[in-house]
Amino acid sequence: MSIKNKHQKHSLLLILTLFFSGCAVYAGLTLDQLYGKPQPQERLAPADSPIANHYLDEVKPIIENRCVVCHACYDAPCQLKLSSAEGVDRGASKQKVYEGTRLLAANTTRMFIDAQSTAEWREKGFNPVLNERVQSEEANTQAGVMARMLQLKQAHPLPDQKVLNHDEWDFSLDRDQQCPTIEEMATYEQSYPEWGMPYGLPQISDEENQVLMDWLANGGMMTAAPAPGQQTLGKVAEWETVLNGSSLKQQLASRYIYEHLFVSHLYFSDERQPTFFKLVRSRTAPGTPIDLIATRRPYDDPGVDRVYYRFQPVRESIVDKTHMPYALNHAKLARLHTLFIEPDYEVTSLPSYDPEIAANPLIAFKQIPVDSRYRFMIDNAQNTIMGFIKGPVCRGQLALNVINDHFWVFFVDPAMANTPSVDEFYASQAENLRLPAENESNTLPISNWISYAKQQGRFLKAKNAFLNDAFENGEHLTTDLIWDGDGYNDNASLTVFRHFDSATVTKGLVGDHPKTAWVIDYSLLERIHYLLVAGFDVYGNFGHQLVTRMYMDFLRMEGESNFLSLLPADVRRQELAYWYQGAGKHLSDYLQGDINAFEQPTGISFHTPQPKNELFGMLQQKLQVVLPDRYDFTQSSMYANNSQALYQLNRLSGIQASLLPEVTFIMVEPAQSGRQAELFTLIRNSAHKNISSLFDEESNRLYEQDNVTLVRGLLGSYPRAFWYLQEADLKDAANQINTIQSEEDYRQFLDRYGLRRTSPDFWSFSDKLNELNQRMFPIEAGLLDYNRIENR
After folding, report:
1. Residue 663: which of 705, 711, 622 has the closest Cα?
2. For the segment 131-170, what is each residue's pLDDT rounded down to a tens digit?
3. Are residues 288 and 435 located together in one domain of the fold?
4. Where does residue 713 fall: left (phi above 0), alpha (psi -120 to 50 degrees), or beta otherwise?
5. Tally of domains in the chain
6. Of 680, 683, 685, which Cα lies nearest the Cα of 723?
7. Are 319 and 393 in the same domain?
8. Fewer CB in 10 Å around end: N or C, the chain?
9. Which regions of 359-454 does DSSP assign to beta strands (E)?
């Protein structure tokens, strides 16, 4: 096509755009008359074709870096998941996944699971964002939502404002979503002219826009994710052979492994650029195409006599908020054999898939030794807890106000629990350890909560009686109780940060001594997983979601109580009172009764008036060999010349801390040429009187006690703010942020050092941030999510 013809074509498209934008009468019927009736199109080109190469090399990187950063996973606006070719073709829905008020469970709409073709998604109510009428350049750009949204943005860029008008722009998670169909686009364009895509962010460059518009004009052809190489498929075959052994022992072990890894991204650690896989249940054996068994939960009845566990390649872009890499290698294979096959136990029958059995791992897997189950989970403890943090339960303030903003996690040494009496105790308590998911996805909250509260109380009383015998006179009730990672495993301790409506978990003891800590034993870890990961249904009704959150209160307090047992008895009560200031009478009775009935003295000798901090110091010393320093800002290459500024940032507290957002990513350009920029994260830890309130968190806030944690690198999937500094400005920035007293002061700071969502440099900064993160951590890094960036 000549330059002149190309210019004429673009002029025609612009005229048509303006015509449709200004005339709302062109709705569904007119589109049908102009371009025919819609029907799904074939958009996947062969992998080795020029069209496929153009999509992979030119188009997909733009979609990932400009679109997927807001449109991925369950919380994608309008359920528009642009992280795969199939997701783009599926389109959007007006129904929300996260809907906390629904009376009945919703139908599931999981990508690659609940429908296998675009036609099936249309039957489920999804509307196309690409043109599905006659395939012409005019129709493809005028009868496609994606093209019209891009054109709308180009015609109406962001207003020239540092902070967008809060009356016109809503960035809250629960904001109303328009989700227009193509028939509704003209009305949308008239009503919301500035709401083109990307929403509330700068327009993409003219060059990027042209690439996308040309691609859309030519039919939006894509290609599926590339198939794994032969070498990788050979490793898959080896693992699938092991996981699908025919003995009852192997079948039970494989079911247990699957139910704990189904949300993980499995990869082979000896590959430089690995393919990630999901472990799925199939009706078909290895060596044949996967016939996916699609159930709400991993332990629901598969409806077949024999389940096969298969490796399905991940077909979507890797995004940080759902990415849970789990390494596979020969050592891991040998470890699974050591844990589940070598021990001398007999499996006489496979457990039922009835909810009352399958939802309770202490019943379903009682034939597998507790030691094997526990060691499997803590071998990769970060991954186990990460399921709670990165799984679908994690989205939203109501789901996450069940945990403190910053706490440390330790684990009971499995050697201390590997006795017949421990196995017998758990077996005796199976009925008291039932979980809400046994009621499936439709639950009445109040009656069920009362029932679970009573059973948890019975369990804790029995547990305390058992422990009073086991730790009589403080015997063994020392730091010996805490797992040291066997001297090499850096999963021995974890740090959890809550960021109001999201959270992060990482290895090691990050930050200053926290307010609270958990000590987790086998039953607690197992129940957390089956409550919040295996048993949680994001599509469940409000009762299911509410009871799940309320039950987690019990588990959190149990973990905290385990930690308190290492402190002197009088200090336990003081700490509990401090952690639960202003708690209601029912909670106070519960705290003082069921979970505080353990009265054996600690076996630790304390020598200071601050035993909790002393205990933290002992545990840090015990775990010193396995504590990673990845997030230690003192290990930064800039620390030597900027230690004072970095310590200043790390010591922010009170009003200065409370004015900051939950997660701030900081990029500092080095003074010395030739070095790459350094990344930091400044995390605000919000203080509370207690975290037992379901709906009125604000009344429990203690702003004057807020503090921060500064870490090296990026920590968190959802940045709220960005700072972009020169190393020479680091000291001045630290000084200025330490003096802010108001929202206006914070705005002035951002004027100088911040990079707002409205900045013309936003996308170039974003590209550099993601590139640096990917370069430093190629296995763990994923695309960040920009849905929570503040407008301040």
Report:
1. 711
2. 999 999 999 999 999 999 999 999 999 999 999 999 999 9
3. no
4. left
5. 4
6. 680
7. no
8. N
9. 406-411
